[in-house]
Specification:
The chain is of the alpha+beta class. Helices cover about 25% and strands about 20% of the residues. It contains eleven helices and 24 strands.
Length: about 575
């Protein structure tokens, strides 16, 4: 189930009954990389076509109408460079920026940019250019909440700038690994009479960045075509000018079965996917030597879950949310919808994450669920009654029908409402939903996901106004945990903060956890460099995943083909 950021958001969304139905389930086959080794040095030239799951509303990251999903992030990483990226251990490192230096209290960060970098229109990357971009980010309706702790940004030299914070922000650069870390050219920005900076409307369909590939053309709902930026600032360890490829064409193919068929037929060179049934298919194809496969097994991955509008009268009683959790047989859902491929979730972090902790999140117990439903019915005079929203793709519909059946067995009354992707997101972010199948929360560092959880981003009613905290969950204990995680310098203190966060989610239940997603990349046998190459300073990079709060992300800078 996909949750796509078409109008405003996310970055995302998405057996037998037993007493431990919410535990960790076995996966069908260990995660693996089945790739072909390079037998020659990388070759320069050639093009690839990439199949992605969604179209975007535009390509200027600072636009007030743009918030990229994972597909937009992948396209953005062709045209732009992120200010920071993650190393192989999941720690942030400079990328487009040369360095990030905090003051002693982490209330100011001094950023030094690399010299000799130019935008694709030939203008130099300067501190003033970066400040212009961040004034637009900070003032944007969609990106502004990310920088709610930033009080000012200003240049202090040709290549240096400072960010001033209201409170300490220890891992600030981690937030600059995706959309809000990608710097658009000054020529794509405008300053109004009121001094406010914004992206030009034209730049959403004609973007300019510092990245390895320059924009060539865009046919909405068909393809985005890019070409090699010949003056790109990076070279490989042998001094060869990057990128290797002459160009990349990105094609949005929203139905995963159609995207899989295009990959099988050789009509696309690379496919990004998170569908469990597709994964089983490509594991077999890779084992037979027909394609290459890289599965994300990094420290951060999104989860499939049901997001609850906790300010809606139908779901604002904890009794209802607890009943739903006890009535949800996650293992059965995984078996029916995902063929048992995925790992059951009981929180936003998977067990291999250093942030994971065990909680008392309810396991499947139909008897307990019925008791809670009866208690609520006696209290209110009616059983829990609400609508479950899902996109109209077959897997989401199958999952919604199964959840409806489970919850109705507990005595609840559930109506399924189907949406296309655009309407699904646009209605959710303004609160026009009660419960939705969702996919989100895949940050390598939990602070990058904090904007989705802070009470300040939840609004004051069940509907109305765009909110980034889509569950509209206002919890002072969650806020305190997020503040501690953001402001603490010691890992043990940060870990304790996010342990407390998970315990609150397990107690208050704004989310009904289902499974942890497995993102993967499929490629034709002539493609090499499927995982991320070294960072600019030579350190090994996180192989796949970690573009902000998305798993399954790769950069295209050092990908190449054997037959250009």
């Amino acid at each position: 189930m996909s949750v796509l950021c078409v109008v405003a958001i996310v970055a995302t969304a998405c057996g037998k009954s037993s007493s431990n139905g919410g535990g960790t389930s076995p996966t069908t086959g260990a995660r693996t990389s089945q790739t072909l080794a390079a037998t020659t040095p990388p070759k320069v030239g050639g093009t690839i076509t990439v199949g992605l799951e969604a179209e975007q509303s535009g390509f200027n990251p600072a636009s007030s109408s743009t918030r990229w999903d994972i597909s937009g992030t992948e396209e953005g990483l062709a045209i732009y460079d992120p200010m920071a990226a993650f190393d192989a251990s999941g720690n942030w490192k400079p990328y487009l920026a040369k360095s990030f230096v905090p003051n002693s209290t982490y209330t100011q960060w001094t950023v030094t940019m690399r010299s000799g970098v130019t935008f694709q229109d030939g203008t130099p990357l300067t501190a003033d250019a970066v400040v212009t971009a961040y004034k637009a980010f900070i003032g944007g309706a969609l990106t502004g909440p990310i920088f709610s702790d930033v009080t000012s940004v200003q240049s202090t030299g040709p290549l240096t700038l400072t960010f001033d914070m209201k409170t300490p922000w220890v891992v600030f650069p981690a937030s600059l690994t995706s959309q809000v870390g990608m710097i658009p050219a000054p020529s794509t920005m405008t300053t109004g009479a009121d001094g406010k900076v914004a992206a030009t409307d034209a730049s959403n369909s004609d973007p300019i960045g510092t990245g390895p590939f320059a924009f060539k053309s865009w046919v909405p709902n068909s393809q985005l075509e890019t070409v090699k930026y010949k003056n790109y600032w990076r070279k490989d360890t042998n001094g060869v000018q990057l990128p290797y490829l002459a160009g990349i064409t990105f094609k949005p193919i929203t139905d995963h079965t159609t995207r899989d068929a295009a990959m099988d037929a050789g009509n696309i060179s690379v496919e990004q996917n998170d569908n469990a049934n597709s994964l089983l298919h490509f594991r077999q194809e890779a084992s037979a030597g027909k394609v290459q496969l890289v599965e994300d097994n990094g420290p951060g991955e999104e989860s499939d879950f049901v997001i609850l509008n906790v300010q809606d009268p139908a779901l604002n009683d904890p009794l209802v949310r607890q009943a739903l959790a006890y009535a949800t047989n996650r293992s059965a859902y995984n078996t029916v919808v995902n063929q048992g491929v995925l790992e059951d979730a009981n929180g936003p972090f998977k067990p291999i994450s250093r942030w994971y902790t065990r909680t008392d999140y309810p396991n499947y117990d139909l008897t307990k669920a019925k008791q809670l439903v009866q208690q609520y019915t006696q209290k209110t005079g009616h059983p829990p009654t609400f609508t479950l929203g899902a996109t109209n793709d077959p897997d989401s519909q199958k999952g919604a029908a199964l959840l409806q059946q489970m919850w109705q067995q507990a005595g609840m009354k559930i109506t399924i409402k189907s949406f296309n992707q655009t309407d699904f997101i646009s209605q959710a972010v303004v609160g026009n939903y009660q419960a939705n199948l969702w996919r989100q929360f895949g940050a390598v560092d939990p602070d990058t996901d904090a904007l989705w959880w802070y009470s300040a981003n939840a609004g004051n009613s069940a509907t109305g106004g765009l909110t980034l905290n889509i569950a509209r969950n206002k919890d002072p204990q969650v806020d305190a945990a997020l503040d501690k995680g953001r402001q603490s310098t010691a890992f043990a203190d940060r870990k304790a903060a996010y342990d407390a966060l998970q315990q609150r989610f397990a107690a208050d239940i704004p989310y009904l956890w289902l499974q942890h997603v497995i993102w993967f990349i499929v490629a034709a046998n002539n493609v090499r460099g499927l995982t991320n190459g070294p960072l600019p300073d030579g350190e090994p990079s996180l192989p796949i995943g970690g573009g902000g709060d998305f798993g399954g992300v790769v950069r295209w800078t050092q990908m190449w083909v054997t037959n250009p």
